[in-house]
Amino acid sequence: MTAEQVSEQAAAWFDRGEFREVLARRVAMATESQRSDRQAQLRAYLHQEIAPSLVEMGFTLHWLENAEAAHCPFLVARRRENDALPTMLCYGHGDVVFGDDENWRSGLTPWQLSEEGDRWYGRGSADNKGQHSVNIAALQQIFHARGGHLGFNCTLLFEMGEEISSPGLAALCQQHGELLQADLFIASDGPRVNAERPTLFLGSRGCVNFQLSINARDNACHSGNWGGLLSNPATQLANAIASLVNQQGQLQVTALKAPSVSAAVRDILSDIIVAGNPGDPQTDITWGEAGLSQSERLYAANTLEVLSMVAGNPQRPMNAIPPTATAVCQLRFVVGTDWQNLVSHLQAHLVAHGFPQVEVTFLRGSPATRLDPTDPLVDWTLAIMAESSGKKPALLPNLGGSLPNDVFADILGLPTLWIPHSYPACGQHGVNEHMLKSIAREGLLIMTRLLWQLGEQGNAIVARHRAHRTPEAK
Question: Can you give the residue ranges of the Peptidase M20 dimerisation domain (predicted)?
Answer without folding.
Answer: 204-353
